[in-house]
Design brief:
By secondary structure, this protein is mainly alpha-helical. Among the domains are: 63 residues, no CATH class; 36 residues, no CATH class. It contains seven helices and two strands. A two-stranded antiparallel sheet has the order 1-2. The longest helix has 17 residues.
């Protein structure tokens, strides 16, 4: 887990590594061209915490699960959504995506049980009544799209592997 070091044991602070950007524009041209590719390559080449610029504003890409958990669960009061999210409120409302502080915590607690994979464990399914969850029918299910899903999976995997960046 992430812990705060004491002043006597803390290493000197250094800037987080990151790709070189353009003056004034920062990394906007690269992000505009391929946003997901930019974030993937930045995380791959510069590690768990990487620095980049969005125009004149400095931003950080956090990609390690422990650091993300630390930010969202233990220190969420230190981080707030930007003006971009405030401009999205008329479209999306005051939801989990756009809210901060206590409204965000309340909504997060409401949906949190959905994200427990244990609810699909064999022990849990034995305790559940037989037809409590049946998307198509009771009993064994065969998805008619199984072959298409497997073909899509192969294509996506091939595309993902061909897009792995090589840092120079």
């Amino acid at each position: 887990m992430v812990s705060r070091a004491t002043a006597s044991t803390a290493p000197p602070r250094t800037k987080a590594p990151g790709p070189r950007g353009y003056p004034f524009l920062g990394h906007l041209p690269m992000m505009w061209q391929d946003l997901i590719g930019f974030f993937t390559k930045t995380a791959f080449c510069y590690g768990d915490i990487a620095r980049f610029k969005v125009g004149p504003k400095q931003a950080f890409l956090i990609s390690h699960p422990d650091y993300i958990r630390y930010i969202f669960q233990e220190r969420d009061q230190n981080f707030s959504k930007t003006l971009f999210y405030d401009k999205m409120k008329p479209i999306f409302g005051e939801g989990l995506l756009t809210s901060n502080g206590e409204p965000w915590r309340r909504q997060r607690r409401i949906i949190q049980p959905i994200f427990y994979p244990e609810r699909f464990s064999p022990q849990q399914s034995n305790e559940r009544p037989r037809y409590v969850y049946f998307p198509f029918s009771g009993g064994p299910r065969t998805c008619i799209g199984k072959h298409f899903a497997l073909m899509d999976m192969r294509l996506i995997l091939a595309m993902a592997l061909s897009a792995i960046p090589v840092c120079t």
